[in-house]
Amino acid sequence: MANSPTDLTTHFFEASHGGRLAWHETGSGRPVVLIHGLFSNAQTNWIKYGHAAKLAARGRRVIMPDLRAHGQSARSHDSADYPADILADDGLALIGHLGFAPGDFDLGGYSLGGRTTARMLARGVQPGRVMLAGMGLEGLLDLGSRASFFRKVLEDRGSHIKFSSEWMAEAFLKTTGGDAEALLLLMDCFPAIPRSVLEQFTMPILVLSGREDKDNGSAAALADSLPDARLVEVPGNHMSAVTLPDFGNAVADWFGSI
């Protein structure tokens, strides 16, 4: 499976609050929108390790935005461009820009992308099938501790103990060319998701997690809290699972079966 599909294209649209946002796509057929995690980008999460190519080979049109402050999307240093829930705003704006009708597309994300997916569901988006990957129940209900961790990574960069969790996160940020100033402004944009709202997510949902991944809490507890969820665990932790073929196979099996 090729890591970089030859028909990969990049597009831009204008969102609110100074946002010229990028998305990348490959393949044709029923659309599936995949949202990457914090400090990452579409290239790293979905393209580099062949996951998008696997979905395209299953007859899917794979649409992969770069979140605000990430990848090729806007990296504003103006706090006014980062109101609460702006990532969900951007995701809903992309769905509107692409003209997708309710039920005619699928939606998923990894880590912060999974949380953004859940926020979009809470705001009323209606995909046919959903994936929440690299995410546990605690990571949806309250991102406070994780946001504090990443704020520390950004504010104290260059001074972390070698091989500590903070050092590893900063090393990953360097590999993706992240903009620390823009990302710091993004840290306060993640509203809580009330537990009662999860009961309203009635569409089929894949909860996909590395077996050693506890960074965002319990994936099993998240699956148990959803009306129609399937839990799939693959090898790896929060950083490694998304790089492995097992992860891409699980994504392709879930979205490629329609």
Can you walk through the features of this model?
This protein is an alpha/beta fold. Strands 1-2-4-3-5-6-7-8 form an 8-stranded mixed beta sheet, with helices on both faces. It has one domain: Rossmann fold (3-Layer(aba) Sandwich). The N terminus is likely disordered. The two termini are 21 Å apart. The chain is globular and about 50 Å long. The longest helix is centred in the middle third of the chain and has 13 residues. The protein is built from 11 helices and 8 strands. α4 links the parallel β5 and β6. 36% of the residues lie in helices and 19% in strands.
On the 0 to 100 scale, the average pLDDT is 94
How many domains comprise the coordinates?
1
Kindly identify the CATH topology.
Rossmann fold
Alpha carbon gap, first and last residue = 21 Å
| Main sheet strand line-up | 1-2-4-3-5-6-7-8
Strand fraction equals: 15-25%
Rg calculated over all Cα atoms: 17 Å
Number of helices: 11
CATH homologous superfamily annotation: Alpha/Beta hydrolase fold, catalytic domain
- Main β-sheet, in a few words? 8 strands, mixed
Key terms:
19% strand, disordered N terminus, 258 residues, single chain, 36% helix, globular, alpha/beta, Rossmann fold
In short:
The protein is an alpha/beta fold. It has helices at 42-47, 51-57, 86-98, 112-122, 137-141, 144-155, 165-176, 180-186, 195-198, 219-224, 245-255, and strands at residues 9-15, 19-26, 30-35, 60-65, 106-110, 130-133, 205-210, 229-234. The chain has an 8-stranded mixed β-sheet with strand order 1-2-4-3-5-6-7-8, sandwiched between helices.
